[in-house]
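Q: Hi! Curious about what Non-canonical purine NTP pyrophosphatase looks like structurally. Here's the sequence.
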Amino acid sequence: MDITLGTWNPGKVEWMSRGLAGTGLPIRRLKEGQVPEAEETGSSCEENALIKALAVAKHADGPTIVAAEDSGLFIEALDGFPGVRTARFAPGSDDDRSRLLLERLKGVPMERRHAVFVSAVALKMPGGFGKVFRGELRGRIAMEPVGDKSEGYDRIFLLPTGISLASLPLEAGEVRDHRRKALALASEGILSWLDERRGLI
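A: Let's find out. The predicted structure is below.
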């Protein structure tokens, strides 16, 4: 038994591999074009993660656990926008999209700039069982970009301490805490499933 990652994005492959390493299972990576890209039509990160996992599972070679992830930034003052469209609501880079969000939030006071990063990891087990695990990182949107340790949305997302994600080194736990939480829960789910399987043998 192994795990197939439902992505060919090198960065995502790296942190998903680290996050699922505790399962002790070999981890397979997709090659670009190996699986048709799934259309993310879901209204939540959970739905989109499951869409990706199911799409990869259809093309899987032999029994494998497929793990796929979707994430987004949900801003309270914008009624949850950009949400599932965080990576694609406007052309350009995440820095460009961050600046657009700051424009939309002009005049909104700090007490109304609550936001949450959401990460959903979907697992598709051999035999049809599927489950989604969710992690969150709560904070607020800054008045202007802050920090130079990372780019994009990290520069406008403030932790409850008032520090931006981009002011922290990339290895700091808080920087990807929503993803770490979701992957930790997914790892537990995989280990529980393996234990149940062993009990049936």
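A: A fun detail: The mean pLDDT is 92.
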